[in-house]
Amino acid sequence: MVIVTKEISIMENTLNEQTPEGWHQTFITLWIGCFITGMGYSMTMPFLSLFIAELGNFSRFQLNIYSGLAFAITFLSQAVISPYWGSLADQKGRKLMCLRASFVMSITIFLVGFATNVWVIILLRFLQGLFSGYISNATALMASETPHSRSGWVMTSMMTSGVTGNLVGPLLGGTLSGWFGYRIPFFITGILMFLTFLITFFLVHEHFSPIKKEELKPLKGIIAELPNVKIIVIMFFTTMFVQASVMSIDPIVSLYVKELMHGQGNISFVAGVVAATPGLGTLIASSKIGHTMDHIGPQKILIIGLAVAAALFVPMTFVSSPWALAFWRFILGLANAALLPAVQTILTLDSPADAFGRIFSYNQSFQAAGSVMGSLAGSTISGAFSYQAVFIVTGIMLLFNFILVIFNRTKSLS
């Protein structure tokens, strides 16, 4: 939070003349809301597979598949429903979408703590996906409220909120799980998400003019107005591949740590540290990358980030201790700071303001599709082969994404 307020004070003089009244309060509130959402996710998800393991006598393959399914089902339902929520956001505003997401998530996450079998968890995760989307809608809200000259900084700052939460969450979740069991983090997260609902309701001000359903431009009309349809589509697929690279590892990271530790020691805490290290790297790099993006353009930042991220999966394949894995994941976090914020900045600069909701919702659908693809691929590959094979496949996927962006880059964004 100190980092954010410092950044705001540095830029305050230049922003005051360009931004709507109440911009800073809205920004800080949404930053906190995204922080809580990110923290709640990372406080529970890295340990979901260990929680599932306590609910039955599963084989290694079954545990990997159930863990992957529990992760993926949320994003599958999210991918299907996101275009509907995006259309509604363009009619009613993004604040309403943030309220909808935080309120329902507070209920579904809290109830997971009472689950007695894996299918209850999967059902609740499915319902959570239908109504989730706080961070994406908060990002879209800030994109619509921010001058284009500062889009890079705002997009990376919004990412910093979730990343900071992702940094704190695993450490807190690992500690709580080790002391009180795996259910407590779900109860705490549910309560915090309800707090997010309250602060969003009372403190966020959106300068939005409602659009009647019949006045919404059809998808064909939006596409016709896009200055570069090709780059928008490439960014959708980039979002999918980047998210898949994250989610291929997340469902199995605690199980991989358990294997590296040979089942000995405080596995929950060490797994929490390993899960948190990318967030630390992203937090350190995000502000610098955001300012650099505003100077040299988001496309160059994206290309560099993809190249570095793909290369880093090579050493992660050969680690023999959880601390070596944590180190390389920290370096990966530095590269991750250049990925999704760059994509979101490109989408912001190349999308009409009255279609932000739908463009960002389509991007969210691709992000959710990437989560499904990554979760199922990671759990299936690790169950059938090895955890190391997951890193190899993920690195190859990011290399393909790098080549895709290189051959489809545009001069206007370079």
Chain-wise SSE layout:
Blueprint: H1 2-16, H2 23-44, H3 48-53, H4 60-92, H5 94-112, H6 118-131, H7 134-145, H8 151-180, H9 184-203, H10 219-225, H11 229-247, H12 253-260, H13 267-296, H14 298-317, H15 322-336, H16 340-349, H17 356-384, H18 387-406
Helix pairs in contact: 2-7, 2-8, 2-9, 4-5, 4-6, 4-17, 5-6, 5-7, 5-9, 7-8, 7-17, 8-13, 8-16, 11-16, 11-17, 11-18, 12-13, 13-14, 13-15, 14-15, 14-16, 14-18, 17-18
What does this structure look like?
Keywords: Cell membrane, Membrane, Transmembrane, Transmembrane helix, Transport. This is MFS family major facilitator transporter. One of its GO terms (molecular function) is transmembrane transporter activity. It is found in: Cell membrane. The chain crosses the membrane at residues 28-53, 65-85, 105-127, 152-172, 184-205, 226-247, 267-289, 301-320, 326-347, 387-407. The protein is an all-alpha fold and 414 residues long. The chain has one domain: Growth Hormone, Chain: A. It has 18 helices and no strands. The chain is globular. It starts with a helix and ends in an 8-residue tail after the last helix.
